[in-house]
């Protein structure tokens, strides 16, 4: 058979076979195929020879040339011999060698490029014939043949099923073999059945007869029995694969039919008879559930996944009902799956298959709920894994399971579980913005279900998660143009329940969750603008959902947040928008929802049950605003239903118009209101129309009359106005106690006929304001101090006059002091809000009324006196001098004030009332400088008692010396001294304006014990110096201002008059020392005032100051050197330091202006110092004092051409910077004006 010594194949082998059957090998030998065939076909061949021959053949097949020659010329030659080896020899190693060779030959023939699939087909045919014949019984050789058959069928690329010649007998033998209790045989048979079935259904389709169907349901029972009893994962896997194919073909459904399929062949009949006992036993679904338990607990994940897929195939069939699912649940399959999930380590295939099956088992409803509750804790970590993967296949099913459990198993969710689930869902919402709509909807539903659990009450961590989830959910819906209706509705549901969850009584008082504020912000800032923008393109369901959600917010406990939210709605043209929705969807449901939320808005804004008329008439009200106005123009006498509708219409008009939401044309509304007044006035006069309040009608009528006045194009009915005015004269009404539009308020106060009733209402308002204070809210439309202040300052109405007349009437009629005080306080507060109001009060004679109050027996009512004085103070503080009258009223007020002050000081000392009077006197003196209150000012300045009191206070303060610094602001002495100094400051200014002839500056500059007494309110120079030197910071500040005023008067006086001021040199030196010592004071205002006084002192020609500032004046030199050093040091020229350099710069300028400049000035301002200053300053550092300093250096010859050139560049840069800033400020101002418009 073999020839191993020649390179070329011999002509014949040792047996004389021809050369065409001899194939050379790469090693130089050759193989005679006929000899090999004889060896393989002979059942008596020694196994050793057989094994050797097979190994040599295997080795030769690895050689491309040999392999190619064999397949090309002798591809079918070895088929029969190789099959004979499997049928003749019960030797496992030889069987394995043979099967391996068969597989190589088949694979080689398929991949040789010749399209030679006949080799595999012939192998399949021969092996199937052996199996069909049954001649091998169920020996080991039959097992090898089965295995070979399975290997051949494992190739699904060609129709091998057609190569099986005796299919019926083959299937019969295979099914019969399944009944053997041999795992290995059963596994091989299952694999063959699985592969043959796949080939049959793939290539034969539904046209060919399904042979296996004849064995149904026995084949199912046998397979399930094997699956249940087998402990081999390989057998289980093959069995599950075969059952999966049967499930796909509907075998399980066929097995459940009452009709038994008839058999066409005796073979099937015979088989049915032989296997009759198999049918006996539990129902198929019970057997199925028992059979899959073992594979589900397998350590092989592939077996578990295949088993889960089999269960899924079975349960997902259309013919499977909830009964089968219930059987699986009762057989604990759900528990097995939960255990698989627990041990799965969140591996994707197992998780997917498990969740799919659990989803189908949930059809068992009640039976499954208990199992789901037990396994719920297992689902939470699975949810964390699934949530991290975008578009994970079972996200939806898992969320559905969890939602079913939360809803149907109360108490299943603990506080910790709620927090964990919520955090997972929040992360999913944030991370996966483009999630599937159904996943989004389920996520929202789970969050809502968790919030409704009793364990979640007061859970701050959960509230924080819900807050984040709400924000993310809004972004997902509003940022996606393809968001569907269901997503929007679930988002609205989440927001609604989140707001309800955040009840204040559910959380600790100290908690700061902010969930309610967050939800309201989302609705106001995101949902509402989106709704108003896209309302015309929305479906009715979304509109109803938005309305219901917003309505639920309004129905919660009323608080400031709810009220602000309602105001935000109506300020966004909410009424007009919803009437537009009624135009798009005029259904009864939409109309009911719209009017219901209207009534709730009225309740929130006006008070509980104020919106009841709208709720009562909602079903009868039309959808069109024009039709609403038509109802208003009807006579409602003896028609309660129409009257109820009219009340609702007035409420809708009233609330919408309060926030400038005009739901109908102004002309039509005014005409309807007038028609309503004309037709129903008799009902009002008779008191029959109680549901329609007078205030509502008046406020609406005033508003639209105000609009008509602004436009000058809307006619009105004088008769309707007359009837309304008559009604207001006869009825008790109070429009100021309700919300009212400023336009309506202004129109009412423009009607002179209404001044008297409005005066009564103002008194009520003042009483209320005095008792509850001023709780003003910017968005509120209630009549409050701000509204009245704006009304009065507008000046086109009788508002100020009504207040003044009311106060005058109260005083004249000696009414209750509390009423007078309440009006006084109200006027004061309005002036504080709008200072211009004081001008309007004064122009309407407020001074005369105030004088009348002071003529009251005020000593018995200190509170009345204090309230009056505070109003006087506020008025004088805010009023323009031109608005103050020149009558005798202010003189009388001044006299009364000073009389009261002297008596109070004598009895109680310098009390708060006295200090208030001092402040008023100071303000009177201030106005005298602008030619107002001059007579009253003279009385103050020349009052002997006042002069004496002031002199005593100043003398006492000066006598304290260094101890005076302890009497700071807040102490009684300190406060009195500050107020007195303020009075002196204004007196010094006023005297120069109204009594210039009485001033003797020599007296003010005198010192020593023989000083002449002052005959008017003033202060001496040396007293001011003492106060500046020893006083506290506030005292220093005011005293320095007084000294500036005094020095300014002296400088002005000496410049106009030749006078010889006699001052001792020591006095001047001490004066200069005080001023110089305060140049470095930390309050720059004091330092600046002292520098100005020092500058004034150096300009007095008669005093010969030069000797005082001699070469030895080290303090002045220190000031100038410090200035130069700071200006030339690069690190010290900041904006704040440049301000503090101003006093020193003033001193330096004063010294440079002296006729004899100290020689040390030349050393201080040398060339290097000046150059350093110029180089160090930037354009932003330049100020007036610095410019004046450089100018004086130039005049005194200290600047050379180089300095001048450098300065010119700095000033040019400063000019450009100022010009640029002016342009920017102008553009900003223009932009702000544009925004305001």
TrEMBL record:
GO terms for biological process: meiotic DNA double-strand break formation. It comes from the Eukaryota. PANTHER family: PROTEIN PRD1, PUTATIVE RECOMBINATION INITIATION DEFECT 1-RELATED. This is Protein PRD1. It comes from Sesamum indicum. The lineage of its organism: Eukaryota, Viridiplantae, Streptophyta, Embryophyta, Tracheophyta.
